[in-house]
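User: Predict the complex with EPU.
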Amino acid sequence: MTQIQQNIPLRQYNTLGIDAIAKLFATFNSIEELRILIENNPISGKAPLILGGGSNMLFKDHVNRLVLKNEVPGLTVVKEDTDHVYVKAGAGENWHGFVQYCLQQNWAGVENLSLIPGCVGASPMQNIGAYGVEIKEVFEELEAFHLGDKEVHKFNAQDCAFGYRESVFKGKFRNQYVIMNVTYRLNKVPKFNTSYGAIEQELERMGVQQLSIQAISQAVINIRSSKLPDPAKIGNAGSFFKNPSVAADVYAQLKTEFPHIVGYSNADGTVKLAAGWLIEQSGLKGCRRGDAGVHEKQALVLVNYGHATGQEIYDLSEDVMKTVYTKFGVHLEREVNVV
Ligand code: EPU
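Assistant: Here is the predicted structure with EPU placed in the model:
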């Protein structure tokens, strides 16, 4: 049975590499273990903080509560039909490990989501997405433990209310559930998605003749590695901000002032702006304040060059938001969870 430990450094448990201290810390790998830890939580007045891969989290300060790291394992085929294989994955499984497992079996659907840091449990939490694909497209269902009634509830895609980097778990049920496992619906026959410009270019550069999910995965890995810092080398949490959407008339006005502005039309008529472009044009790409910085190759990513505190990263993010607002009148919203 896992023990509750005191004053544990969280640096290795968050990809930004922030030196925060957890007052209490334990890991769990089953519902039974989680139940026992919650029942014995010495800080009973404060809900525990559940940690997955720590790839989308900013510790602004030390954490004066019980931190529980989700290490629920498992990859199991639970169902199969003519077109699909349904794989149930433990929330603590490494995301890219799961993608590689699917590639080995030739099961399609997650190849565009290669190399995203973090764990399986985070994938529905914020409907992870990259290179033209979002997790909601292969999501079947999940099981989550409710911290209030201590029961396990099932959620289908509709229950999760997926949006752009959003779900009920980031919204109305925030801090109420612990995702235990996720079942994905993978395709036996691939539907290749190379709509995202950079993929086509990379496949061509690689000289790929015969398209495959393995080739797409490799193209995505190449693109990500060329732009996004490796958290093992430079602390970061991927995109720190979301790409903001604005009304069509606001976009039209911006376009007259800034003809090169990057925007993509949403189905509802609004336009999603590339926040990386806005930040770069505000002159902040590559800027550095102590050990906190804006990445030099992708301005949407804030980095920790060594020993930046969570507060320093947060302050830099405030400055970025203010500067972009002053220049463009556009509000940026953080994608990371600030704790
Ligand atoms: N751009 C700039 N300067 C920059 C960065 C981007 O001008 O410093 C421009 C690019 O030239 C391009 C556009 O902005 O025209 C979009 O850039 P990119 O393709 O790099 O994607 P992104 O919109 O910045 C989003 C996701 C990433 C995901 C990529 C690829 C969000 C918040 N981020 O970034 O997701 O990998 O698309 O699909 O939606 C993450 O969420 O952590 C993440 C890395």
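The chain has three domains: 5-70, 75-187, 235-338.
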